[in-house]
Amino acid sequence: MYGLPEVAHKYNMWDVDLKPHYLTVIANKGEWREVPAAHPAAMLPPTNHQRLDRLLLALPKCQPNTIELSEYSALGDTGAQRLCAALFGHPALRELRLAKTGLGAAGTSLVAEVIAVHLRLTLVDLSHNAVRDVGAGSLADALKASRALQTLLLQSCEIGNPGGVMLASALMHRAALGSLTNLDLAFNPIGVAAAEALREAASRSNSLQRLSLAGTPLDPTLLAAVATALTPAGKARPSATRIFEHGTAYQTDFVYKSMLREHRQARGAVLRQQVVEEQQLLDVE
After folding, report:
1. Which of 62, 60, 56 is nearest to 42 (CA)?
2. Where do the structural domains in the chain lie, given as residue ranges?
3. What does the alpha-carbon distance between residue 190 and residue 162 come to, in Å, rounded to a whole number?
4. From CA 10, how far away is CA 95, in angstroms rounded?
5. How confident is the model at residue 89 (pLDDT cuts 50, 70, 90)?
6. C-alpha distance from residue 128 to each of 8, 70, 72, 104, 251 (Å)
7. Which residue has the higher pLDDT, 267 or 202?
8. What is the pTM of this model?
9. Of 34, 53, 51, which Cα lies nearest the Cα of 43?
10. Which of 36, 46, 128, 249 would be a feasible disulfide site paired with 51, CB 3.0-4.6 Å?
């Protein structure tokens, strides 16, 4: 375990000598929180955007594989812009947990861009944010592009029928068939149209193993039909040759990764410039 003195050494809060690839950035309600010793973590309460910016400065050096900012309600769409600008240049990331962080559709769209281009990001939690149907549409587009994401948690995100249908369509998309295993849509106001689309998607998916619709206003009979569409033991993931449409799997994979790397770098630069320009305007005011 690392205590306050260790993590506060650099950037007034980080020790850049912490072991890379084994770090979790944790900010929960602005309090320091213990993590099991088997999972070393840098624990940081970013109570404002200035602290968040300092945290992001440390990411390239520390390379944490998990970022946990759940219940950091001050993040919002503005903080998400800063965060995502940094994450485009952070390929080691595997888990991004942003539940109850005050995100709206704009912030969700930025997170969706990160999902689409990251080759190692396997879990994203956006529960209890105002994702709504617009944000769900952005996430659906990201699912179609992602070849890594396995778990997407969207509890209580105000997603209705349109958003549910778009997510179901993404599940049926070729690239998504071999990736997503867990989709949580509990406590969202989705209706019959979305449930029917999700049932169809579950029956076709080669990877989906868990689909949560708890707390939705759906008829128990329809919920049972959706559950029946999922195979109990899960389904075999499609082979690489089924996912790639042209050339050999290796050649396509190499080109795909190169394109994503270039896109991440370019998009990250654009977002960082936007942050700089907005800060300059604030300084003038």
Report:
1. 62
2. 4-284
3. 8
4. 24
5. confident
6. 30, 10, 12, 10, 40
7. 202
8. 0.70
9. 34
10. 46
